[in-house]
Amino acid sequence: MTHPTTPCAVAIPPTASRRRLLRAGSAALFGVLAWPVQAARPAAPLVEIWKSPTCGCCHDWIRHLEDSGLRTRSFDTGNTQARVRLGMPQRLGSCHTARVDGYVLEGHVPAREIRRLLAERPEALGLAVPAMPLGSPGMDGPEYQGRHDPYDVLLVAADGSSRVYQSYR
């Protein structure tokens, strides 16, 4: 048996109280239609950063990552020990060292390349932007007066070798 005023025709057993079932069914249906369940979004990747407590460009790089939707946690203990512990070659060093989802990041790596790394998941130690090139994220503030040096983001292999992952000109 069905009731014509319900949002959908529901068969109601003849032994049940039709009115009680219709009220409960309508309320349940309304709740499902009014408040659809949203799929849970995966948490943004967490980037752990080791840096000097007084480094202004490190702070600017962290802001760049956060503005790009990445989560950060920084440790103001310097980065030399972290670089050694994480296996990043000293010759690729910069002012901060980071780790994200099993990869090591050295220097002013753009958030775009971090996201690409996490999407492609190559077999690698991580990414590096050696030194501190002007125009890279964190080295692009007003104090640099719009100057921009070309630089490469390097994909660093576990053995310390590297190749160009992305060029910025």
UniProtKB/TrEMBL annotation:
<dbReference type="InterPro" id="IPR007332">
    <property type="entry name" value="DUF411"/>
</dbReference>
<protein>
    <recommendedName>
        <fullName>Metal-binding protein</fullName>
    </recommendedName>
</protein>
<dbReference type="InterPro" id="IPR006311">
    <property type="entry name" value="TAT_signal"/>
</dbReference>
<keyword id="KW-0732">Signal</keyword>
<feature type="signal peptide">
    <location>
        <begin position="1"/>
        <end position="39"/>
    </location>
</feature>
<dbReference type="Pfam" id="PF04214">
    <property type="entry name" value="DUF411"/>
</dbReference>
